[in-house]
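Researcher: I'm preparing a figure for a lab meeting and need a structural model of a single chain. I don't have an experimental structure, so a prediction will have to do for now. The sequence is pasted below. Please return the structure as tokens so I can convert it later.
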Amino acid sequence: MRSLSKIITTILSAIVACNAVSIPVFSQNGQTDPIPDEVNQTDSASAEFLCRPDNYSMNQDYCVSLGPSEKLTKLAAEGKSGAKVPFNPQKIDPSLSTVPYNYAKLNLENTESAPLYNTVEDAIAGINAIGEIPAGGIRYVSYINRVDTADGHYVQAKNGSWLRASPAALPTATLGRTFTATPSNNFGWVFEGCNPYLEPNYNSGVNTSVWFDREQVLEVLETTQDKNTAWFKVGENQWLDRNHFRCAYINTTPPEGVTNGRWIEVDLHEQVVMAYENNSLVFAAMVATGMKPFYTKPGIFQIYEKKEAENMTGAFEADKSDYYSLDDVPFTMYFDEARALHGAYWRAWYGYEQSHGCVNMTIGDAHWLYNWAQIGDTVYVHDPSGETPTDPSYYGAGGA
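Model: Understood. Here is the structure written out token by token.
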């Protein structure tokens, strides 16, 4: 009975002691609740109680800071929040995908030019051509009038000339996500629909109970490396390799020269663009950058011009077989000679290199970034894999 009484007394003493202490906890603004004056701050080695798992502003004499409380205190000392920020990405407003242009595609072989005519009658008859759009690859016009016949579609370009072209449906899908606070973990997009692997290796088999759709956005819980590929844990017994996933690696440390807390990062390896404000992530999207040998040049640049719509033409191959002609490219932000961030109405897939050096985005994603970006904002372009040439002498002016 005496032993039981002693145990009860000890427990009650501990409860009283714990309740008598207001443990200081870091708030959102980094301030702490004060330690009560009645607490006798003796040497911490004499403390009898374990600190609760919170952030503490200093070594506590009335409790021992071990385990979670010790880790959270260290994070607080580094200016980091110990609390996990919920992963709550917001989709882009669908209305941002709307533009006041109608587009038509020239469905011709790369070796065929597109004749231009003064009237739709001449265009239908194929007589009295007044000019042409040169032969090449991707060619689109922005049109103001259209005539459909049993023989095909004819459109009137903004310059008044008529030509045969197929009206193109405007893509409305967006990939970008916005954030009100920097997520605690990295995240990314499913690049190719799949079942995840059970473990981070190809011999583990797949989790047949789970299917991820292409472009689905997932939080990354863990990252590891196996057999020369990165693996991303997105759930219990759910791993994706880089063939199936593109990761946004969050880094809130500003690039060199940035002092206002605003910048745009382009990760060429992951094909991801991210925007930071007040050193916090506010936007991220999967994109398409320059393909070999027309890479997007790594470096630190500034946005020097913004244009709501821009006509883009060019060719880089010696035989001009890659000639492109693109009317009214929307939400263009130039940052490195002719290289720009912009909407790409002719793209259907993102997440791999496709352009002549520009950073291609969905129209809605480009619109969001265009509204947010300011002339002079830093654009930090880099390739963590080291595969993209960094010698400036390698690069020309770039293109779409």
